[in-house]
Amino acid sequence: MTSDRFKDIEKGLSGSGQGEKKPEQKKYRGEGCQAKGLGETGLAGQGAGLTSHSYPDGCIVQKERLERSTRWMTAYKVTYASQGLLVKGYLILPEQGLPLPGLLYCRGGIGRVGMVQLSRAMALAKLGYVVFAPFYRGNEGGEGRDEFGGADRQDVFSALTLLRSLNETTSDPISVIGFSRGAVMALLAAKKCTGIGPVVVWSGVSDLRLTYEERVDLRRMLKRVVGHPRKEPDKYIDRSPVEWAEQVNSPILIIHGSEDDHVSPEHAYRLARALQAAGKEHSLLIREGLGHRFPKVEDEQTMMTIHLWIQRKLTQSSK
């Protein structure tokens, strides 16, 4: 098991520059996507009555330009198709250097707890990525029901298809960041999908049964959404990356605060041990004295560390 301190993991890493190409118009290269050429208000303005049954997974059927857009990037709230449902997410397009690598950001929490922060998605895009952050089904106006890593994992898989369909993104691999519960979603993608590049597990859940044991305040939600771990053990195993680490083939960077009282550092240690036992490439970075969410300065430092690590891994994979 590799345990790297903050300065060690930064040593020798290098970033990447940006070019000057600027797209004239949003385009899609996903075959069969019936949403080609959509305006920003959706299909013929039919925002309220859209149905995804005629759309392939990952097809954008509606997009709304957000006021938070800047001179350097454009932010959209997107409606896209996933398993016959219309679900939502943020798409952030930098205005320079396109095409750029795709980055999928998997949120934590459920419902209004742990909602995607647009500022986080834009900060990642500023580092030189086309970023997509799915909300998961049942959240923020999306159809369906959030299953905390159940069928809603398809929304992540469909989001990968969406990223690949954009002319603004380079070809595979797609990098993935999973925060908190989003670590389960990110690692499910690394397990099930092709073309996944470096994966970052940030303050991430790796053993859902451990979460049930440690977070008494979440037991009611977990029993309602997933089931009781004694009655539904397979559902907990299915949502616990420590149980299937041997099936993950992407390089993994695990980042965790030593004082995290939402998702204990034991999740990071267990995941690192499971990856080590499976002979999988990984690094473990424990940020001493930090909790579940990092203060602003440490958060910015960590995002830069993530960026440099991803760039190094992408460079290595292209050789």
Explain the layout of strands and helices.
Elements lengths: L5 H5 L49 E6 L7 E10 L2 E10 L7 E5 L11 H9 L3 E5 L18 H13 L8 E6 L2 H11 L3 E7 L5 H7 L4 H7 L7 H6 L13 E6 L8 H12 L4 E6 L8 H23 L1
Overview of this structure, please?
The two termini are 25 Å apart. With 319 residues, this protein is an alpha/beta fold. Helix content is 29%, strand content 19%. It has helices at residues 6-10, 118-126, 153-165, 182-192, 208-214, 219-225, 233-238, 266-277, 296-318, and strands spanning 60-65, 73-82, 85-94, 102-106, 130-134, 174-179, 196-202, 252-257, 282-287.
Helix content: 25-40%
The gross shape turns out to be globular
Pick out the low-confidence regions: 1-49
Major pleated sheet: 9 strands, mixed
Continuous helix count: 9
Please give the radius of gyration in angstroms: 19 Å
SSE topology string: HEEEEHEHEHEHHHEHEH
